[in-house]
Design brief:
The complex is a heterodimer of chains A (462) and B (93). Chain A is built from 18 helices and six strands. Chain A is of the alpha/beta class. Chain A folds into three domains: 1-77; 84-267, no CATH class; 280-461, Rossmann fold, CATH 3.40.50.1220. The N and C termini of chain B lie far apart (58 Å). Chain B is flat. Classes of the chains: A alpha/beta (462), B mainly alpha (93).
């Protein structure tokens, strides 16, 4: 009877999770959606506290207080520009928790001397494997985003073979755990092997590919939770875990499509076709036109439509508030201002949107690729701020370039393009950008935030 | 084995629900979607609570307590930071 009530409460929690995610389909309903999700979690936790096997609450209280404190401090203090790191870290904690819970459940059964059923051991092994990959993979991703370890792609010969071999060892160990479950050490071996795999899987992934790996680890953290659900025979874990698993897979796919690269290529740090492309000197020689804030301010005279194209550079320069000030100033002069957001701009899915939302930019002004591209021909000035590969016309024109076929923002079709950038250094793809040398492009060599501040004062003086 | 087929059914159906619901999330909300769904994956917390509270052996208790801490960071931090972000999307001048 009591078990029925608990399971019904878990069902309610699962329904709230689904409504919560559904709420996230629109900015207006999203806050309520998140609240529904949190309510579902609260119900699930409270019901669990009535479990008859619980003999003492002290440790639970200690754990919840410590974890709750750390979690709320992180959530309250984190800067919006550092959001990718934080989400990466949270993914890792979720994966880590799955490893620990599956381990505890396994050891408990072994200690009681009962022979665990096959489903139980397979699921424990899977939780240990996926959870540890998620934990260590996320820590490496965190390290890369935080600048603790190199953001560059670390590749070495035989990487694919070594990774496949380690993954195979993990699977063999799970089989071993199933066949001879009484050996506790097998579980720890699975966790150890998966930890190495987690590190090796993420080190070859370079800076601009980070959105893919964050989304993928998000999916893994869900799958680890679902696997733990199979260990505990607990429906709400399975449902919540598979919802998150599906969400992460969808985001991963969107990111890969947005770069026209296969998941395998991203995971092994491989760029597209790598035949000879023009060198930077050939592309830029004598064609670069440098400009000043005053000249840019004059461009806005008589302009009717301006599009801002933000990239990771805007996040690094923390320029989102300044950009908003400039846009408001232009709007006061009757100019229409929109923002063009490429799906992989920044270091995680939706990174630019969060930064601009922080700066109070209405989400109606943030336009996605398909919506904004047809409008560039009617755009007087396109301002590219810290973006590079996502505006490189080679993706359209040169089938042999590493970014061939990648959907890009067609800023080159605007009447005038202003590129704000410190130097002509290449983006993540490592290739020169003919946009910088185009007839209608002006380069403003400056720090992102300083550049916009100078433009603002030039507009005011104009 | 019957119970396995049952939980597997739930798993597969939930994945389909996930695909249906999440495909409709617009690009502008992808970051809150990740942090929010991440908080939901902290549901492992309920397994952790049982392990920490059952106190079967010292080992399972230690694992359970660590899991409670990890999962609570995930849950509390995840929902709060998502709320913080979503508030910004809702705000109007």
């Amino acid at each position: 009877m009591q078990a029925n009530i608990v399971n019904l409460a878990y069902l309610l929690a699962a329904v709230l999770f689904i409504f919560g995610l559904k709420g996230l389909t629109h900015p207006r309903t999203a806050v309520r959606g998140n609240f529904l999700g949190a309510t579902g979690m609260f119900i699930a936790v409270v019901v669990t506290l009535f479990d008859k096997n619980i003999v003492s609450y002290e440790l639970i209280i200690i754990g919840v207080v410590v974890g709750g404190f750390i979690g709320s401090v992180l959530a309250a203090k984190i800067q919006m520009t550092a959001m990718p790191q934080l989400v990466g870290l949270f993914n890792g904690f979720g994966g880590g928790a799955s490893v620990l819970v599956a381990g505890a459940a396994l050891f408990e059964v072994l200690h009681m001397g009962t022979h665990p059923p096959t489903q139980f051991t397979i699921a424990s092994g899977a939780s240990g494997l996926i959870g540890a990959v998620t934990f260590w993979g996320s820590l490496v991703a965190f390290g890369k985003l935080q600048g603790i370890i190199t953001e560059k792609s670390v590749v070495f010969p035989g990487q694919k073979i070594i990774n496949s071999f380690i993954a195979a060892v993990g699977v063999v160990l799970i089989v071993w755990l199933v066949l001879s479950p009484t050996n506790e050490i097998t579980y720890w071996l699975i966790v150890a092997v998966a930890s190495i795999l987690g590190v090796l899987l993420v080190i070859p992934i370079g800076g601009a590919d980070m959105p893919v790996v964050i989304a993928l680890l998000n999916s893994y953290s869900g799958l680890a939770a679902a696997a733990t659900g199979f260990v505990l025979n607990n429906n709400v874990l399975i449902i919540a875990g598979s919802l998150v698993g599906a969400s992460g897979i969808i985001l991963t796919n969107i990111m890969c499509v947005a770069m026209n690269r296969s998941l395998t290529n991203v995971l092994f740090g491989v760029m597209g076709p790598t035949s000879e492309t023009a060198t930077a000197d050939e592309v830029y020689e004598g064609k670069i036109k440098s400009t000043s804030a005053e000249e840019i301010a004059m461009l806005f005279d008589g302009a009717r439509r301006v599009v801002v194209v933000p990239g990771y550079g805007m996040a690094v320069a923390q320029a989102q508030h300044t950009v908003r000030d400039m846009a408001n100033l232009l709007r006061d002069r009757g100019i229409e201002v929109d923002y063009a957001i490429h799906p992989v701009a920044g270091r995680m899915p939706g990174h630019m949107n969060v930064l601009l939302a922080e700066a109070n930019v209405p989400y109606e002004n943030l336009k996605e690729l398909d919506e904004i591209n047809p409008t560039f021909e009617q755009t007087d000035v396109a301002i590219v701020l810290g973006a590079n590969d996502v505006v490189n016309p080679l993706a359209r024109t040169d089938p042999s370039s590493p970014i061939a076929g990648m959907p890009i923002l067609d800023v080159d079709k605007a009447r005038t393009v202003v590129v704000i950038k410190r130097s002509l250094s290449p983006g993540f793809a490592g290739i020169p950008n003919p946009l910088f040398a185009a007839d209608n492009t002006l380069m403003f060599f400056n720090d992102g935030k300083k550049a916009i501040i100078e433009i603002i004062s030039a507009i005011k003086e104009n | 084995m019957e119970s396995f087929a049952f939980v597997l059914t739930i798993f597969v159906l939930a994945i389909f629900v996930g695909f249906e619901v999440i495909t409709k999330v617009p690009g502008t909300l992808h970051t809150p979607l990740m942090s929010g769904s991440n908080a939901i994956s902290g549901i492992t917390l309920i397994g952790a609570i049982i392990s920490a509270g059952t106190q079967h052996t010292t080992l399972t208790t230690v694992l359970g307590l660590s899991a409670v801490i990890f999962a609570t960071i995930n849950v509390v931090g995840g929902f709060l930071v998502t709320h913080r972000m979503l508030k910004m999307f809702q705000r109007r001048d």
